[in-house]
């Protein structure tokens, strides 16, 4: 999906829930923003831009920080903003962590759509990959390739049968991969739960907001939404983290066993290696395969 103009929401909307790691109740208010104002979080009267330079921590989620004020677990909402092509919005949070909701981006997407989409009188900008980019951390790596196709691929490599060596590819012009992505839930293994709690994490975790695996079985009564749901969620996280670049990426992104920290390092590499050019929608429409201008969700 290529939008010609920037977008925001038509009216404020409130989202409430529990933080996955803090376990605290949290209220989030989304407000419309003007053109070129970008995506900004607000907490304790501090405005924190959703940009990689404010990325702070990557332990089982992505956090932002400015002037000592922290916003945790931003990746699912960032993915929802990408999926709905929102460029400009204010996000007011009354606690340090965004709500986990059902563990996916679905409820964030639903809230944004319920608020309505407002097209702004300003062209949308995209980050076009001009040169290949490769980074790694041990056996994990990410690669970006210039292309006229927008594609995000994640390859998992788990030593079990329930996830194993699966991969999933998301292409914005493919409606089926989109529908099967924003509702994919976060997950963990039962043996990880005690470790996470000892680290002060996962205080709000439950079978209502995460898939839990044990001995190659799913503990959630309803089972998986998709056979490859965990890998789909990894792509969701990837999309959300990469949106901290500040622009949607035009190109092919491949991640092997990556996570939040590697995603963030990849965004930094894009900025520091002159691998991207920022171009208005009018310049890339003919370049992107299958691109059509979309004005509404």
Which overall shape is indicated by the principal axes computed on the Cα atoms? Answer: globular
DSSP strand (E) fraction? 25-35%
- The number of helices is 7
Q: What distance lies between the first and last C-alpha atoms, to the nearest angstrom? A: 10 Å
Low-confidence runs (pLDDT<50, min 5 residues)?
none
**What strand line-up does the widest sheet have?**
2-3-9-4-5
- Helical fraction: 10-25%
Based on CA atoms alone, the radius of gyration comes out at 18 Å
Mean pLDDT: 92
What is the β-strand count? 21
Structure description:
The protein has 297 residues and is of the alpha+beta class. The protein is 22% helix and 32% strand. The strands form six sheets. The chain has a five-stranded mixed sheet with strand order 2-3-9-4-5, with helices on one face. Helix 1 packs across helix 2 (106-115), helix 1 crosses helix 5 (229-242) and helix 5 packs parallel to helix 6 (260-272).
Provide the fold topology.
Layout lengths: L4 E5 L3 E6 L6 E8 L6 E5 L2 E4 L5 E3 L5 E4 L2 E3 L3 H9 L5 E5 L12 H10 L1 E7 L1 E5 L3 E5 L2 E6 L5 E5 L11 E4 L4 H5 L7 E3 H9 L12 E4 L2 E2 L10 H14 L6 E2 L1 E5 L3 H13 L3 E5 H4 L13
Parallel strand pairs: 4-9, 11-19, 14-20, 16-17
Antiparallel strand pairs: 1-10, 2-3, 3-9, 4-5, 6-7, 7-8, 11-21, 12-13, 13-20, 14-15, 17-18
């Amino acid at each position: 999906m290529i939008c010609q103009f920037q977008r925001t929401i038509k009216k404020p909307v409130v989202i409430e829930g529990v933080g996955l790691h803090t376990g605290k109740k949290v209220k989030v208010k989304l407000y419309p923003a003007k053109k070129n104002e970008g995506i900004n979080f607000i907490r304790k009267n501090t405005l924190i831009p959703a940009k990689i330079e404010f990325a702070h921590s990557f332990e089982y989620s992505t956090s932002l920080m400015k002037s000592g004020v922290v916003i945790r677990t931003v990746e699912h909402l960032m993915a929802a903003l990408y999926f709905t092509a929102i460029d400009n919005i204010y996000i007011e949070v009354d606690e340090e962590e965004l709500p986990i909701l059902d563990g996916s981006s679905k409820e964030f997407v639903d809230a944004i759509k319920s608020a309505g989409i407002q097209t702004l009188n300003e062209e949308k900008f995209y980050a076009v990959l001009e040169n290949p980019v490769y980074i790694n951390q041990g056996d994990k790596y990410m690669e970006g390739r210039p292309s006229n196709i927008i594609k995000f691929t994640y390859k998992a490599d788990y030593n079990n049968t329930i996830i194993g060596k699966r991969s999933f590819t998301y292409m914005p012009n493919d409606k089926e991969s989109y529908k099967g992505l924003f509702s994919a839930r976060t997950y963990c293994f039962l043996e990880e739960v005690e470790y996470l709690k000892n680290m002060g994490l996962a205080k709000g975790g439950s079978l209502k907001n995460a898939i839990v695996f044990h001995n190659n079985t799913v503990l959630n009564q309803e089972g998986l939404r998709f056979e490859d749901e965990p890998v789909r969620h990894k792509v969701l996280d990837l999309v959300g983290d990469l949106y901290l670049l500040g622009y949607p990426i035009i190109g092919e992104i491949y991640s092997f066993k990556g996570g939040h920290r590697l995603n963030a390092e990849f965004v930094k590499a894009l900025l520091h290696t002159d691998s991207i050019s920022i171009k208005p929608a009018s310049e890339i429409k003919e370049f992107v395969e299958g691109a059509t201008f979309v004005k509404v969700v």
